[in-house]
Each structure stands twice: as C-alpha cells, then as structure tokens.
Amino acid sequence: ARRSRRRWPRPRPAAAYCAELLGRQRRREVCARARTRRMAAAGAVPTSCAAPASPRQRAPLRGSSATRRLRRATPPQVGARVYAGSSAVRHGRHIRIAPRACWSLEVSLATSAFVAGTVGALLARGGERARGHALFLGVFGAMQLVDASLWYEAAHAEGGLAACTLHNRLATRAGISIIALEPVAALFGASAAAGRKNGPNPFVAGAYVLFYLVSPLVGSALLSPIEVAPSSTAQSCASGGVEGPPGVERALPVVRDCKRFPTRGLLLDLSAPAVCSTVTPGGHLQYGGMDIVYHNLLTPPEWGLEEVSVCELAPGELCEGGAATFFGSREIPLGLRLAYLLGMVIPYLQVKPRAAGFAHGTILTGTWMIGYFSDAHASVWCLANVAQGLLMLAEPAIWPGLPKDGTFPPLALAEGPTGAATMSSDDSESDAGGESPGGAAQVFAASVTPPSPTPASSPASDATAKLAEPHPPPLPPRVKEKRYPFREKELPEDLDAVIIGSGIGGLALGALLAKAGQKVLVLEAHYRPGGCTHAFTEIGENIFDSGIHYVGGAKGPMRTLLSHVCAHPIELAFMGSEKDGYTYDLFDMGDGAQPLYSYRAGELIESLTERFPHEADGIRSYIKDVRGGGILDNGVVLSKMLPDGKSVPCAGRLRSWLWSKVRARSPEVTARDKIAEYVKDPVLRALLSGGQMIDWNLAPGEVSWHVSAGMLNYYFDGGLYPAGSSNTIPQAIIPVIEAAGGKVMCSAPVSEILVEEEADDGTLRAVGVKLARGGKVVRARQVVSAAGYVNTYQRFLTEEVRARAGITHPERVLSNLRLSHSHVCAYISLNGPPEDFDLGPANIHSMPALSHYDYDIQAMQDAFYADPFCQEELGGCLMTLTCPSAKDPRYADDLPGRSNVLLLIEGLHEWFEQYASSKHGRRDEGYTELKRRFEPMFLERLYRYYPKTRDKITHLEISTPLSAAHFINSPGGASYGLDWRPEHFEEDLHEEAFSPTVRGIDGCYVTGESIAFGGFYGALVTAFATATHMLGLLPTLWLLANDHGAEPVMLKDGRPMRD
After folding, report:
1. 34, exposed or middle or buried, with CB in 10 Å at 0-12, 13-18, 19+?
2. Residue 922: how many other CB atoms lie within 10 Å
3. Which of 132, 299, 742, 939 could form a disulfide with 333 if both were Cys (CB 3.0 to 4.6 A apart)?
C-alpha cells in the first residue's frame, strides 16, 4: 500500500488488500491471453518468441508455507521479467505478488511462533531427550522465518522476488544454510533423544558434515552466461501479452557455451543472481542455488527421469539494463531431495521406543511425499513442523515412563534381586548329587561344548592332575546364586503358555510373550536355568561356561534381538585387544607356520591375504560370496516368520521366493567342494573349510558350505564374550517373564505334552504338560517345546498323538539327518591370574596331525572317529583351547588370583554307549578309566601353547557326551541337535517338519534348533519366528516397535565403546 500513490482512507486488512490485487491480476491475465490469441491469429507474434514447453515441475527439497496450487493457462514467456499470470501494474508502477502470498506469510509467521513455543516447552521439560528434540525442531522450524521473509519480499518489494534484491540473496543463502544443517541437526538431536550421551558416532557425524555441509562448497556447477541484445523480436514478444516497466526493453538471450563455475563462488558471492529465490507459476517458493549444486548428480539414469542439459533450459529472470546473468536448472534433483530426507529420517530410527522413532520418520516421509506428488505444496513443511512439535510434546502421554535421558532403566523384578548367579552353589533344592534325571535340551552357542561335568564331590569324579602348591588363597565372600526351584504352590494360575526348556530360545520366546501381556511358565529339567547359556561353579573353585565360549554378530541384528528380551543391558566384550587387532581365532594347521594363522575383527580378508598372498584373488572372491549370505543371513529364518501359506496366499508366495534365494546359493554343495572352486593352496582350503569346525562338529566333506560360510560371516566383525560369564544372559531375561506374572521353574522335567480333542469340530489342541515327577499336570492355553526336534516329536508327543495328528515326518527327518556329534571337554583351574601364564583371549584351533593327512580334514577326522587316540603319535587330534578368565573383563572381580582354561574335542556317543544305561554318578569304573585316558591328551596340548601352566593346575575335570545327555537331556549328547549336512536345507523338509507350528495340533509350537539351526544366534532368532505365529506377524512387529529395549553394552579393552 505504501508503494501506491493512492492513500487508503483507513487501514485495511492484509487479506483484503491481497484479494483486491489478485482480482485485478486475474482480470489482466484474461485480457492478456485474449490479446495474445488475437495477435497470434494475425501472425503478429513470431514463433521464435513462443515459450518452450516446460515439463511438469517436480517438488523442490522443501517449500515454505501454505500455498494453494494455481494452474496457469499460459506458461512463462522467455525473456520476460515476470511470469504471466503473476504480475500486476498499478498506476504505472510494477508490483509483483505471489499467489496467496499474504496468507502464506501469515501461516509462516504462525508456524514460527508455534515452533518457538514448542522449543521453549521442551527445554523447560529438561532431559537429554527433550533437548535433542528441541535441537532438531529449532533448526527445522527456523526455515519458517526465512520463508516469511521471502513471502514478504514477494508481496511488497518492487519487482517481487524476480528483482533478486540483496534481501532475496541473503534470505536465500540463509535458507540454503538451514536446509544443509537439518540432517546434521537431526543426527545430533536423535542421538540425544536416544540417550547417547557422547553424541553420534564420530565417523557418521563426519560423513554427515562432509556430505551435507562441505560438499556443496567444493563442487562445481554448469552454468551458461547469457548475452542480452535488444531486438525487434524481443519487443514483439514483450508486447505480446506480458507487460513490463516502462522504458525497459525485453530481449531474448543468446546462449553461449556452458562453463563450469565453482559452487562456493556462486553461494558465497552475494552478487550472483543465480542464487535467488523465485515464485514458480504453481505458486510455491523455489530456492535458488541448491538447484545448480548437484544438478542430476544424484538422479540415476535407470530411474527413467529425463536428462536435462543446463544449456538448453529456459533462462530465469534477466537483470534490468541488459546485464549478463547466470541460470541453471530450475529444480532440485530428486536424488538430492531424497538424500536430505534420508539424512533426517534415518537418525530417528534409533530413538526408542521404536514406535516413537518410526512416528517421527513417518511425519517427515509423509510430508515429503505429499510435497512431491502435489507440485511442491510448501504448506506441507508447516504441517511437518506442527505435527512433529505436537508429537514431541505428547510423547510422555503416548509412551508413559519415557526417561528424560533417553535411556530406559532395567525392568523392575517381580520378586527380589536376581543376583550375580555365577558364584556359590546351593544344592539344597536338588536331588542327591545335585542333579536331576532328564531335562530340556537346548541348542548350543556358536562355539559350544556339553554342559556341566560331574561335580567333584560325586563318586564318578575323574582323577585330577597333581595339585599346584601351595593351594590358592580362599575366595572372598560371594553373592549367593539365586535358584528357581519347582514349587507346586507357586505355580501361576490361568497360564497363557507353558514353555519346555529354558535355553536361549525358550527364555527369549517367554520374554516376548510376557511383553505382549501373557503369563508364561518356563519349565527346566536342570537345577539351573539357561540351557547352554548357564555357567557352573561346582568344580575347582572356579566358574565355567556350559556352552557359550564366544558369540558373533557384533554389527548384525543379534544385538537388537537381545535388546528386546532383556530387562537390563548385558555386557559383551570384544575378544583380543587393540594391539592384536582384536584377534578372536588362532589356527595351528600342523605346517609349523609361525605366528599362528589368525582371524582379526573386521579384517578377515587382510588376515588371510597376508599369509596367502598368492591366493589373494580367490580369497577376495570367496569372502565376497560369503558376505553375500550364508546360513545365518538368508531366507531360512525369514521364511519361518511368515504366516501359513494356506491361510495367507501371498505369504506362501513370499516364502517360496525366499527359498528360491536359498537354493540359488547352492546349499547342497559341501564346504570342501565349494572352497575348492576358489583356492588351490591345501592349507588355505583346510583353514576355510574346517578351521572353525569345532563350532559345528561335521567334517568339511559332509557339512553344507552355508555352515562354514555362515560362521565366517557371523564372526566377521569380531568375537564377543559375555562379561561376568554366560550366566548374565538368562539372568537378564528371566525378570521380563516374572514382571508379567510368569515363572521360571527348574528341576521340573516334562514327560508329555497333553493333547485333547475339541468337542465341536474334533480338532486336536495342546492343553498343557505332564511332569515326569509325580505326574503333575500343568494346563495352559498354548504349549511350546524348546527342547529340540527329537525330544519334541519322539518323546513329548506320543506315538498315538502323532498318528491322530497325521505327523509322519520324524521318520523321514531321522533317516536323512543324524544327531550332531558331541564334545569331550577338559575344565582346568589354575593357581594364579591369567597374566602369569600368558593366557590369551583368542581361541586356539589346534590340528598338529593335519600335515600327515595332506591337509585333508575329512580324512583326519574319519580316522579320529574310528579311534580317538590314534593321532597322539602324530601330534594330536583336532582340539580347541579357550580361556574364559582371559576373555572376561569381570573375571578377576569375582575370582582374584585364579584363572581357567577349557579344552574341547569332538566326542561320539558310541565311544561311551556301553555306559549309557547306568545312572549319572553311579557309573562303573570302566567309564572313569576311559575318561582318564583323555587327560594326557588335554594336558599335553595345554603345555604346548601355555607352558607356564605346568605344575599350576589345581583341578581338572572331564565331561563326555553322557554328561550332556544328563545335564541338558540332549539325545546322544548332541551339541547342535540335528547335524548340518546339505539335506538339512531342503525346502520341503523345512515346510513339513521344521515349522514353528506343530501341524495338526492347535496351540502347539516349537522353537530353537527344531525349526532352523542350532547355535546361540540360531535359537535366539527362531524365538522371534515362533512369536510371530503365536501373536501374529503385525502384532509382533508393533510390539517390537513400541518396545524400549535394553541393547547390550559393547566393551573393548574392558571399556564401553562408542556406537
């Protein structure tokens, strides 16, 4: 109004003023179009003046405030100072006004006020989470102030934004700076909201800064200088319907060759008119500058988008007086906008609960999609600011109990503290001798041995090595271990589920069901919970793990899966040290090579090529194939999570597609044959095909190559050991079950799953279990077996029940697959700390006799299976040495002045079969003598690698496959359930026999190695697969999305590491 010569008699609302201007503008447009049509019909307008057809504009990275899409009948005229349909002339003065600019200005200001108030409220709330939200929202919402400034310029400045005034150039550069800062602010804000007190990973933060802040300044852009020369054609075009200021001649540009200009010059030079914002014919703000920084760089040709040459584009506004200017593309490329979106969304996926992070990401993605598909309605970013601010304010109400620091406290226990559960033994609740017959079998960890050997006080104790002198000092007082005895009066009522077996599969499934609100009872035959994740203290005044000697998946999904089932974070320590590159495995291949071959965390290729440079190409090709998948990273487990294909046809097709991917990787090929395709060196072939064979107990000529490859992939990023012993794992999960009213009860072996026939339709349904002791019946709505395939289908489900349910696959399975081999183990206690004996954290896989078999592990093991003592004169059989006291950074806190070593070899049940019928603790002298024959074998290997341990042994205990059969009720003492030969990965076998649901019996399920494969990770992930069938796929995903989680703490060199 102040630019008009007319004085309004009284102040008028801005909206009314804008309406009057827009009304006049529309009337002038109608007249202009009519005049253009008349002149074109008369031939007065040369065809060279016609505006080029402009493609449909894609949405820019971000707009500003609420503007409505206004389609124009005529495109902007080339060389015109203003766009047709977006200008008005008033009393000889040129006034440019964007459509609905005043309304957009008001919305931008209102949104700015809302953002400022929300940021203030978040800061007043306090806490890392609120401050992180305030950081991102403050930067994200600051754009509204820039938008408001530009809308004001568009509505009130002479020439509008087309004039490219200093105000426009400054505001545009401010907007570009904020746009570049938004992903960085999202990264730091989301890290604070997720409780990362040390901020984001420095490497990730550096990458963000380089890509979003630095790279725009070091790049270059193709631009074209424009020569402006007066011409009659230009005057004809100017008079053809677009009015300009009096006395200013319009001219068509003459485009010369394109040149490359440094982007930093364009962005930092305030005189560069290319970096100016404009209002598009569609009525939204378009920021200049960013459109020329990465033009088409991030838009791959396969997306099918039109490649546009900068030189061929229509120019933007020309400066008055015929001055030269630059122009670039008039649009920000799709790839760049997508990169900025991902830069803001991805950091919020780490915010917990997952549903909160997904909600923030959904708001950003949803508004981005609306803007993209609606010709860049800038109003969506106002919506994003408001929606995200409201969500941030409402988080405590939506997710009660959110901590202010972003981290979640340990889950409150149902009754009393759990304690360390790794120290003193209290056998008052167990049978004589401390054991109970039978038990629930559970799969072993990735490097696993049988469970607790016979206690030293038992009549069947083995002869020990000569005791070290003097005896170690007495141990300090320890926390009494918590026990979970079976007491009938404490049985929960109205149970939702009974789970047989308390291994990692059973406990993890119980925790997931408990988080879904179900009351769960977990029954364990052993007097300790945890299956092969438990540790024992009965021998040698020491602590030994029954199954977990190291785990992998340092950077895989294993950590996330554990976080969903634990009440509080467990600590996982990287094996090795910075000095040795965090070496987790050493190999003595019998060729005399020194130092021993090694696998280092994250440097598997380098570890191998350093020792086998002549096989470098084959090594890289094989590891590339390994990293592309394997037994632990393919469609086998994913297929288990999908619903039954008969009830959901699309799920069946997806399952078939997943299995096609498995078949494409040829699981029917053995490890020996597969590796022969890549390398020729016999030592390297043996190392890759069977170096870690103790982790799966099947020779390279019989095991599927997916297994050996899967183990390499699983440990690729390093070996991990649970700090405080493996007991910390069940002790972190059990409180979750108890908090929902459930129980874990030990010394409660199960003899049968009870199945009844429904009265209405005759279908069979599992209704509970019968205990082996006293025949006590425990009823529940659902029954789950986590006790292994053989126990489930040949023991818990009687032959009569199998016949009624039509279950026939056990015969086929056991004819194609065999039970895996077991282990014979030596548990050795030493008088002195680990450093006195140079004990290292890395496992040593020793094969001194391998050279006598031409480095053929298959031939070596075949001879060993026939006679376990035949290779002593050749240097010894395949054996693994591992030192828990050197791997565990918490060991010295509980057992100062002590250390331990565990040695293990493969063990066959046939070697001890003649003693299997006798009871544990009462076996005859022949069994004891046979165990003593293994002692020299173990001691010789211990002294070979750790000579300082000689005469320092305080106790030695031997366990056999019969020990495993007794303690965890594993049939034949099998360490890994069914063996992993190629037949294990046949699709029809999995569909028929290895399903999470027991076909033909409603309410009956299985988990653990019964449905996929053994090992710690295998049992853990199958618990999630079974949960999807018991709870439903979508409810399970929703549960995980809303779960707070307790992600493990990763330790390096005994100190927590940054993520």
Report:
1. exposed
2. 11
3. 299
Per the confidence metrics, is the pTM higher than 0.90? no
CA distance 162 to 168: 9
Continuous segment of H or E residues that includes residue 146: helix 143-156
Residue 1018 CA to residue 262 CA, distance in Å, equals: 54
- CA–CA distance, 1 with 146 (Å, rounded to integer): 23
Type of residue numbered 926 = G
Strands 953-959 and 1001-1002: unpaired
Pairwise CA distance, residues 717 & 682, whole Å:
26
- Environment class of 596 (CB within 10 Å of its CB; exposed 0-12, middle 13-18, buried 19+): middle
Residue 500 backbone phi and psi in degrees, to 5: -95, 115
**Residue 862, burial from CB neighbour count under 10 angstroms (0-12, 13-18, 19+):** middle
| The predicted structure's pLDDT at residue 761 | 80
C-alpha to C-alpha distances, 863 to 134, 587, 856, 903, 1000, nearest whole angstrom? 68, 21, 11, 20, 44
Question: Can you spell out the DSSP letters for 910-969?
Answer: GGGGGGTTSPTT---HHHHHHHHHHHHHHHHHHHHH-GGGTT-EEEEEEE-HHHHHHHS-
Distance CA 500, CA 1008 (A): 11
Res. 961: pLDDT tops 60: yes
The pLDDT of residue 288 is 63
The candidate with the shortest Cα–Cα distance to 251, out of 47, 51, 46, 80, is 80
Can you spell out the DSSP letters for 508-569? HHHHHHHHTT--EEEE-SSSSSSGGG-EE-SSTTS-EESS-S-B--TTSTHHHHHHHH-SS-
Q: Where are the alpha helices (DSSP H) in 158-214?
A: 166-193, 202-208
Q: Say what the pLDDT of residue 1002 is.
A: 93
Of the candidates 985, 984, 991, which has an alpha carbon nearest to the alpha carbon of residue 655? 991
What is the C-alpha to C-alpha distance for residues 377 and 100, in angstroms, rounded to an integer?
12
How far from each other are the two terminal CA atoms of the chain, in whole angstroms?
58
SS3 348: helix
What angle is formed at CA 1012 by the lines to CA 1008 and CA 1015, rounded to 5 degrees? 60
In contact, 413 and 738? CB cutoff 8 Å? yes
Spatial contact of 504 and 921, defined as CB atoms under 8 Å apart = no
Radius of gyration of the chain (CA): 36
Q: Which amino acid is at 335?
A: G
Say if residue 595 is preceded by a cis peptide, omega within 30 of 0: yes
Write down the residue that tokens 């999630």 correspond to.
1024
**Statement: residue 326 has pLDDT above 90:** no
Residue 370 has pLDDT above 80, yes or no: no
Element (H, E) at 255: strand 253-255
pLDDT, tens only, 215-252: 666 554 544 444 433 433 333 333 332 233 333 333 33
Residue 494 near residue 519 (C-beta atoms within 8 A): yes
Element (H, E) at 654: helix 649-664
Q: Which of 123-127, 745-749, 980-984, 1011-1015 has the lowest mean pLDDT?
A: 1011-1015
Report helix, strand or coil for 170. helix
Q: Which residues pair with 65 in a beta bridge?
A: none
CA distance 534 to 732: 12
pLDDT at position 430 is 33
Task: Yes or no: say if 332 and 301 are a contact pair by the CB < 8 Å rule.
Answer: no
Q: What is the pLDDT of residue 858?
A: 95
Question: What's the rounded Cα separation, in Å, for the pair 979 and 1014?
Answer: 9
Query: pLDDT (tens digit, 9 = 90+) per residue, 139-166?
Result: 988 888 888 888 888 877 777 777 777 8
Q: Strand 597-600 to strand 497-500: parallel, antiparallel, or no bridges (unpaired)?
A: unpaired
Strands 743-745 and 520-523: parallel
Q: How far is CA 266 from CA 170, 216, 646, in A?
A: 13, 10, 62
